[in-house]
Amino acid sequence: MKNLRVVGLCALVVLGAFAAAQDAMTLKFAPKMGDTFKYKLSGNLDFQGQSGTITSNINDKITKSDDSGYTISSTQSGTVIEFNGQTIPGPDATETTVFKSTGEIVDIQSEQSAAQNPWRAAELNNFVYPDKPVKVGDTWTSSVTADEKKGTVAATTNYKVDSLEKIGTHDTAKIKVTFKESGGSDPASADGFVWIDVKDGSMVKGVSTWANVPMGPAAINGTFTVERVD
Question: CA 63 to CA 109: how far, in whole Å?
Fold first, then answer.
């Protein structure tokens, strides 16, 4: 009887390990050239002590993709900003970003001026994929190196798989994302969640609260939501 109990315990351990392995997901974004992803941006922001709202349309197009990574040409259009009862239309803008296959940023070609810190904003919003399969509760980190030429400061992003959720037709992993700059005189931070499609690694939704994010001569605080438009 004792031996049977041992066998039973071993079976439970094996089944538990098998179940855990089955739950693990490989989150990776490997798009095809020509793929497009459309999003709707909305947010509440505070700029120089004034509160306002913003809405915008974002269209991401994959212009290059291979084993080394991918390139996204992102166009923002239809931007409307409201401050103190005034409606301010924003200009259309295009930004081309080169990524490693992991999601790390290699290069940015932006219409924004260097004073608007496009690299810092891009790193704050970026998602770096885990280097191994993950399941609910797992964590990983990525880091940004200070680079005076790019305008980046040292920063770390912590990720944690919070849960699995269905959003529309997408099966997603809800990831807790916490970004914090550790360098510079006025470090920025962002805290929120990103929903990643478990089948193709694309972003389905993102919610983030910004603090002290540099945008030209002033910093922005606010909460922003980006949602896929299928």
Answer: 13
Could you tell me which residues come within 8 angstroms of residue 151 by beta carbon, excluding any fewer than 6 positions away? 114, 117, 118, 119, 120
Q: Which stretches of 119-169 are assigned E, i.e. beta strand? A: 139-144, 155-167
Tokens of 133: 């399969």
Output the pTM of the full model.
0.87
108-142 residue pLDDT tens: 998 765 546 789 989 999 999 999 999 999 999 99
Under 8 Å between Cβ of 62 and 35: yes
Q: Which long-range contacts (CB under 8 A, 24 or more apart) does 104-110 make?
A: 104/128, 104/142, 106/69
- The SS3 call for residue 118 is helix
Instruction: Return the pLDDT at 14.
Output: 42
Q: How far is CA 187 from CA 114, 121, 143, 209, in A?
A: 17, 12, 14, 14
End-to-end Cα, the chain, rounded Å: 59
Domain extent listing, the chain = 27-228
User: β-strands 218-228, 36-47: how paired?
Assistant: antiparallel
**pLDDT reading at 8 higher than 70:** no
Rounded CA separation 226/211 (Å) = 17
pLDDT in tens, 173-221: 999 999 999 977 789 999 999 999 999 999 999 999 999 988 766 788 9
Kindly report the length of the chain: 230
pLDDT tens digit sequence for 84-101: 888 989 889 999 999 999
Q: Is-contact 169 194, C-beta < 8 A?
A: no
